[in-house]
Amino acid sequence: MFKTKSYTPIQITVLVILRFLIGWHILYEGLAKFFNPDWSSYGFLSESKWILSGFSEWILSDPDILNVADFLNIWGLIAIGLALILGIFVRFASVAGAVLLLVYYMTNPPLIGMEYSLPAEGSYLVVNKTLIEAAALFVLAVFPAHSMIGLQALFSRSGNG
What we know:
mainly alpha
């Protein structure tokens, strides 16, 4: 579908760097949660005040559901981060990561009149790093970031050789 030959080396480099940086951040978030035995999404979900507040309440209503959500969150972050860093299943990982980040955003968005007891990284109005990173993942999904530098590119080239 896309040919990397139509992109300049700087364009390819920038897409690969973007893929790697987002992958690193997402992998780090997953590993930080994995290695913290006390981590739970309970605090984040209990702050939900927007579109997904009912879904958050449902997750919080049952400790088993919360445990499943925490497990899926941790391993989803780790898998998405590794896929982006290693350059495998990049389109799928990009879309999955963007959807996950949009779920985070819609759970606790930086909208006027919404105050949270958990500290925010800064004072935002509508746009925050979560939304920006989700948009960047959609960029990676629509550009051929999967065919540029990574295991998937290596395997597809070795199959054609």
